[in-house]
Design a protein that fits this description.
Blueprint: H1 8-20, E1 24-28, E2 41-50, E3 59-67, E4 71-79, E5 82-90, E6 96-102, E7 109-116, E8 121-127, E9 148-149, E10 156-158, E11 165-170, E12 176-181, E13 186-190, H2 191-196, E14 217-222, E15 228-233, E16 237-242, E17 247-253, E18 259-264, E19 270-275, E20 279-284, E21 289-295, E22 302-307, E23 313-318, E24 322-327, E25 332-338, E26 349-355, E27 362-367, E28 372-376, E29 401-402, H3 450-458, E30 474-476, E31 482-487, E32 493-498, E33 503-507, E34 511-516, H4 521-525, E35 541-543, E36 549-553, E37 562-564, E38 578-580, H5 581-590, H6 600-632, H7 642-662, E39 685-687, E40 691-693, H8 708-713, H9 716-723, E41 733-736, E42 761-764, H10 769-780, H11 784-789, E43 793-794, E44 797-798, H12 805-813
Parallel strand pairs: 5-9
Antiparallel strand pairs: 1-36, 1-39, 2-3, 3-4, 4-5, 6-7, 7-8, 8-10, 11-12, 12-13, 14-15, 15-16, 16-17, 18-19, 19-20, 20-21, 22-23, 23-24, 24-25, 25-29, 26-27, 27-28, 28-30, 31-32, 32-33, 33-34, 35-36, 37-38, 39-40, 41-42, 43-44
Length: about 800
């Protein structure tokens, strides 16, 4: 068990060491990340307010969206034909599962709350006075005015949840923000308190917690003019809470599968819920019971629901993509639209926002696929009588069908009837399985005519009915998300495939290099012109959980790969000078920190101490190597092998770097092997699994490492690497022997072949065959022409000059030249 046998001080030291060894990571965003979501959207929320930035005082509509790309976005949807992006908030790590507008007395700014898979709830503020027309339309290519806010710009951040945050809700005045998630945790936060605190981490949560839920919470509703909160989830029961008193009010049973959506009227007396069991239920909160149930509007489960202002109708979205309107009094539904499936067959409606304001009648919808769609809603359309409904209009103006059944007409054994105690006389009444309605009775218990029975049977499968609207009236498109990836052999590039089937090649710092829209992922991966075989140690890990690729570095593996400085672009470097790829990358990531906040004298002294230790370690290694060679008799005392030459060059390079530090030129002026694209601002540094820290190449102010919240989130090993005081990792070595091919002995009769007849040569594994050729030519005292004609073979196969010893070992020596 963690901490067993340790006192408190030892446990804190152990935890601190573990924290300081955490990996770091950054994300290479999709090229269109600033303009639109990458991949799917999990939740939407619509808000209307008076626009004080213009003289016309028009009503402005803002749509907030929570994406699987770890972003929260605001869209100006006031004009139906011209959707404008307003703001982009980044800071979550992983999916953002819900988003809600938080009403505020400040009319000059918008307050938005979000909850995500990083177990945090965040509060964001957007300045309305400076946001008019920001970013242009969603199709604009102009990114100069992009309004991006990162984690450091959040008003508040809560880390109270132990698992994913799945749902949020807020009341009318914005004083209470409720958050629920997996594991049954539910909190009711005081928003004003949250604004004043960056984090409540370490504080008591009892004053915010609502305890009693037995399973995960997937949806929340809160009365706008009351203090009631309604939660639903995998417990299959609704729980009603008093937000002010922090206590349970009631528990309502009825659903037989996960409750996915809930809406509650302003006074907190009526709630409507949607469930994966395919039913939509109406609850009387004041009486603590279920008052009605509707089944048959959707084929499969129902995942989202929203009621109109007086709760006489509700709008629902199903797992099969249908968006329906249901009249509660008339007990009739109409299919307004049907979301089309994406390439993976995803079209289930995850969330919908209904706008029934003046001069508007529409719904914004997000699905399990991607994109946000706007659908027209015929809110003025009234269901016709049952007799008139038998004659269907060719224009689909009236396409209502009967759904569900009152409780007293439901079969008690039907899943839709759970929670009722029906009249025993109805046990013999046959039930239409799909609609849940008795074919012999209408919604009021009256006998149905033959035409009505035929209509109900014909309408028993919603999937066979045509929707009122075949195409959406508007779309906010999403970019294609990465669905799989693979590292290429050089460990500097990787391959991705997105949800549209396009295959792309990326560089770990330069970003997108090339896209192959018509080539399969496996074909490109096995193309030796693109993915030429070579052996480079694995020094980073890849993932794509946010739709873009994240590159992570661990302190135990980041320094395993190296390369010659010349090959990385340093033209002024010595031919034998080497650079560690992991060290170069970490320094490139952290150059945005305020290094001048440290004591420069101490920094130079620390660098000098490290340089001295490096020299001592190098001398010991050389002594051991000489002793080994004398014991093996592999080389005379007058010869130096390739490893010695490389070590000497490395020591010289370290001395030069130390002189640079002593001259107080620092790390900012040194050659950088990795340069990040300045126009791609969402490269970010993430520490651990919770926090995201913006760097120099983001559009945020560089962070001050003297600040506790910054120093706490930057692991010490990474900071040491950035400051150049990290111990130099030793180069991996390889031994090899060279000899003249038997078939070519006659060609070497003019050379002293005994000069290369030694047992083995020791050299770094990154040594290229070109250097091996030069080494052999120097030993044999060949002229320039003869050296150019010299070939190096392994198992009878000629080796390319740019191959490394590691590549030869992996692909020729161990595989017998295969």
């Amino acid at each position: 068990m963690f901490g067993y046998g340790m006192n408190n001080a030892q446990q804190e030291q152990f935890a601190e060491r573990a924290r300081q060894r955490r990996p770091i990571a950054y994300v290479l965003p999709h090229p269109e990340f600033e303009k639109r979501h990458v991949g799917g959207i999990n939740a939407l929320d619509l808000s209307c307010y008076d626009d004080n930035s213009n003289d016309d005082k028009r009503r402005r509509k803002v749509l907030a969206s929570a994406g699987r790309d770890a972003s929260v976005r605001l869209w100006d949807v006031s004009e139906a034909a011209d959707v404008k992006k307003m703001a982009l908030f980044v800071g979550h790590r992983g999916w953002v599962n819900d988003v809600k507008h938080v009403p505020s007395m400040n009319r000059d700014s918008l307050l938005v709350a979000s909850g995500g898979s990083d177990k945090t709830v965040r509060l964001w503020s957007h300045d309305l006075l400076n946001s008019s027309g920001v970013g242009g339309s969603t199709d604009s290519n102009d990114n100069k005015n992009s309004n991006i806010s990162d984690a450091s710009c959040a008003l508040g951040k809560l880390r109270a949840h132990d698992d994913y945050v799945m749902a949020l809700a807020t009341n009318r005045d914005g004083s209470i923000l409720a958050s629920g998630g997996l594991g049954g945790q539910l909190f009711a936060w005081d928003v004003e308190t949250l604004k004043q605190k960056w984090s409540i981490e370490g504080a008591s949560l009892d004053e915010y917690s609502l305890k009693g839920a037995k399973a995960s919470i997937y949806c929340l509703g809160i009365a706008k003019d009351a203090n009631l909160i309604v939660s639903g989830g995998t417990e299959l029961a609704l729980r009603v809470w008093d937000a002010r008193m922090k206590r349970k009010v009631s528990k309502l049973k009825g659903h037989t599968d996960t409750v996915r959506g809930v809406c509650i009227n302003d006074d907190g007396k009526i709630a409507i819920t949607a469930s994966s069991d395919g039913t939509i239920r109406v609850w009387d909160i004041s009486l603590g019971r279920q008052s009605d149930v509707f089944a048959g509007a959707h084929e499969g489960g129902c995942w989202a629901v929203s009621g109109n202002a007086n709760f006489t109708r509700f709008y629902s979205g199903g797992a099969k993509g249908d968006i329906c309107i249901t009249d509660i009094k008339e007990r009739k539904s109409a299919i307004l639209s049907r979301e089309t499936s994406d390439a993976a067959g995803n079209n289930g409606v995850l969330d919908l926002c209904v706008d029934l304001s003046a001069n508007s009648s529409e719904a914004w919808v997000c699905t399990a696929g991607k994109d946000i769609r706007r659908w027209r809603i015929d809110s003025s359309q009234a269901p016709s009588s049952a007799a008139a409904a038998t004659t269907k209009s060719s224009s689909n103006v009236d396409d209502w069908f009967t759904v569900g059944s009152p409780a007293k007409f439901l079969n008690p054994s039907s899943p839709a009837s759970q929670g009722f105690r029906g009249n025993p006389r109805v046990r013999s009444s046959p039930i239409n399985v799909t609609t849940g309605a008795s074919p012999s009775a209408d919604g009021g218990g009256r006998s149905l005519s033959s035409s009505q029975k035929r209509q109900m049977l014909q309408n028993s499968s919603p999937g066979k009915r045509s929707p009122t609207h075949a195409t959406p009236s508007g779309i906010i498109p999403s970019a294609s998300a990465v669905v799989r990836h693979a590292e290429l052999h050089d460990r500097m590039r990787f391959l991705t495939e997105d949800d549209s089937g396009a295959t792309s090649v990326w560089h770990i710092s330069e970003g997108l290099l090339n896209t192959f829209p018509n080539r399969a992922f496996e074909v490109v991966l096995n193309d030796h012109e693109i993915n030429e075989p070579c052996a480079v140690p694995k020094w980073f890990n890849l993932s794509h959980r946010e739709g873009s690729v994240e590159i992570e570095f661990s302190p135990s593996t980041f320094a395993k790969a190296e390369s010659y400085a010349i090959d990385l672009g340093d033209e002024s470097a010595n031919a034998d000078a080497k650079l560690n790829l992991g060290v170069e990358m970490v320094q490139a990531l952290l150059i945005g920190l305020h290094l001048n906040t440290l004591d420069e004298t101490k920094l130079v002294g620390a660098k000098r101490d490290v340089a001295q230790k490096r020299k001592e370690a190098l001398q010991k290694e050389e002594a051991r190597e000489k002793q080994r060679r004398r014991a093996d008799g592999s080389e005379s005392g007058t010869d130096r092998d390739l490893s010695s030459e490389e070590s000497s060059s490395s020591a010289s390079a370290e001395d030069d770097e130390d002189r640079k530090a002593s001259n107080n030129r620092g790390l900012m002026n040194k050659f950088r092997a990795f340069q990040f694209n300045a126009s791609s601002p969402r490269l970010r540094f993430s520490s651990g699994d919770r926090e995201s820290i913006p760097l120099e190449f983001s559009k945020s102010t560089p962070l001050d490492i003297s600040l506790p919240e910054v120093a706490k989130n930057v692991p010490k090993w990474a900071l040491d690497v950035a400051l150049g005081i990290f111990p130099a990792p030793s180069s991996a070595k390889a031994s090899f022997a060279v000899s003249v091919c038997e078939s070519a002995i006659s060609d070497f009769r003019d050379y002293d072949v005994n000069a290369i007849k030694q047992k083995s040569v020791n050299a770094p594994r990154i040594l290229t065959i070109r250097k091996v050729r030069n080494y052999v030519a120097d030993k044999l005292k060949m002229d320039a022409t003869a050296k150019e004609d010299l070939e190096i073979l392994c198992h009878g196969r000629a080796l390319k000059l740019d191959m490394s010893l590691a590549t030869v070992d992996a692909y020729f020596w161990k595989k017998g030249g295969a």
